[in-house]
Write a structure and sequence with these properties.
- This protein is an alpha/beta fold and 341 residues long.
- Helix content is 54%, strand content 10%.
- The termini are far apart.
- The site of phosphoenolpyruvate has 8 residues, from loops.
Length: 341
C-alpha cells in the first residue's frame, strides 16, 4: 500500500518561508500533505507562539497557486473554525491536547459536520487509553477519516530521544484499532537531525502507514524546533530509503520464519506454565506467612531477588531495564496473589 508522507515546517514563520518550502514540496510527488504549525503550544512562556490567522490566509493563497494541501495543529474550537474558513481540511490534535479529554471534547464539538481529516498525535504521557479515547471522541463527532501519529512520550528517562518512542504503545493502539492508519513523527521522537533516518527506518520495519516529518528550507534559522528540522534535500534522501525498501519476499519468508516461530510459541507456553507454577507457590507461601503472622512484603527478600536475577540477566545478555520491569510485574502479581489468597 502506498505510504502517506506529511512534510513541512514546524511553524509558519513568514509568507516567504511558507512559499519557499511549498514550492519545493509541491515538486515532490511522494509528499501527500504539507504540515505547517499556525498555533504553537510552548511548554514554557516567552517563545514564538505561531502567526495564527495570517498564516492560514497564505495557505489558502498557496493552495490555489501550487495545488497542494496543508494541515496544521488545532488546540481550541476557534482554530477548527478558522481552518474551515480558510479551506484547511486536515488538522491534528497535538500531544498536549490528546492528554486532555476536556479539550478533545471541545474541539470535537467544533469538528462535528466538518468532514475534516483528523490526525491524533499520541498523548505526552505513555497512556494508550488517552490516545484511544481521543480517537473514539473524534469518531463519535462523526469524523470518518482519523489517523494516529506516533510522536513519542515524555519520560523521566527519554533514552537519548527527545520523546521516548516506546514502540509497544503504538503497537497496542494498532492492535485495538487495526483500521486506524499509523504514521510516525520521527522529528518529535528524535529531536535531532541525525536521529530522523534511523527512527523512520524503524517505523518502516514496523510497517507504519507513513511519516510526518518536519522540513524547513533553512533548518538552522528555524524559529521553533531547529535541531530536528531537515532541509528538503535531506527529505529526498530520507524518502529514497524509506519508500524504496525492498518488498518482503513472501514465500521464502514464511518458510524460514515458521520453524523459529514454532520455537517461540513453545517457549511462550513454557514461560506461562512456569509463571502459573510460581504463582501457585506464592499461594502456599501466603498460607505459611498468615499462620506465622509474617508480613507479605519483605523488602530484604525482594532486594535479594532483584540483585540475584539482575546478575543472571547480565550474564545471559538480557537488558537490565527490561529484566527489572518484568520482575517488578511478576513480584507485584505475587504480592497480589498472597494478599488475596
Ligand atoms: C508539532 O508537530 O510541531 C508539535 C508541536 O507536535 P507535538 O504535539 O507532537 O509536540
Ligand atoms: Mn515541532
Amino acid at each position: 500500500m502506498s505510504k502517506t508522507i506529511i512534510a513541512g515546517p514546524c511553524s509558519v514563520e513568514s509568507r516567504e518561508q511558507l512559499r519557499e518550502v511549498t514550492a519545493t514540496l509541491a515538486n515532490m510527488p511522494q509528499v501527500t500533505l504539507i504540515r505547517a504549525g499556525v498555533w504553537k503550544p510552548r511548554t514554557r512562556p516567552g517563545g514564538f507562539e505561531g502567526l495564527g490567522e495570517p498564516a492560514l490566509q497564505w495557505m489558502q493563497e498557496l493552495t490555489r497557486e501550487y495545488g497542494v494541501r496543508y494541515c496544521c495543529e488545532v488546540a481550541r474550537p476557534e482554530h477548527v473554525e478558522l481552518c474551515r474558513h480558510y479551506g484547511v481540511d486536515t488538522v491534528w490534535l497535538g500531544a498536549r491536547t490528546t492528554a486532555n479529554p476536556f479539550m478533545v471534547e471541545e474541539i470535537c464539538e467544533a469538528l462535528k459536520g466538518s468532514g475534516m481529516h483528523v490526525l491524533v498525535k499520541n498523548p505526552v504521557c505513555p497512556d494508550v487509553r488517552l490516545w484511544l479515547g481521543a480517537i473514539e471522541r473524534v469518531r463519535e463527532a462523526g469524523i470518518a477519516a482519523v489517523t494516529a501519529v506516533h510522536r513519542g512520550f515524555s519520560m523521566y528517562n527519554n533514552q537519548g530521544f527527545r520523546n521516548a518512542p516506546l514502540w509497544e504503545i503504538p503497537m497496542e493502539l494498532r492492535h485495538e484499532m487495526p483500521d486506524v492508519p499509523m504514521l510516525c513523527d520521527p522529528s518529535h521522537i528524535g529531536g535531532s537531525r541525525e536521529l530522523i533516518e534511523p527512527i523512520a527506518l524503524a517505523a518502516q520495519m514496523l510497517d507504519y502507514d507513513g511519516l510526518m516529518v518536519e522540513v524547513h528550507p533553512h533548518p538552522d534559522d528555524a524559529w521553533t524546533d531547529g535541531n530536528q528540522q531537515i532541509a528538503p534535500n535531506e527529505l529526498t534522501s530520507l524518502l529514497d530509503k524509506y519508500l524504496n525498501a525492498p518488498a518482503p519476499a513472501a514465500d521464502n519468508l514464511s518458510q524460514r520464519l515458521t520453524p523459529l516461530r514454532q520455537q517461540i510459541d513453545d517457549i511462550d507456553h513454557s514461560l506461562l506454565t512456569l509463571l502459573a507454577r510460581r504463582m501457585a507457590l506464592s499461594s502456599q507461601i501466603a498460607d505459611i506467612k498468615r499462620e506465622l503472622h509474617s508480613p507479605v512484603y519483605q523488602s530484604a527478600r525482594w532486594a535479594d531477588i532483584l540483585a540475584d536475577r539482575l546478575q543472571l540477566a547480565a550474564a545471559l545478555g538480557l537488558d537490565a531495564d527490561f529484566t527489572k520491569e518484568m520482575l517488578e510485574k511478576i513480584h507485584g502479581e505475587s504480592v497480589r496473589v498472597q494478599l488475596e489468597s
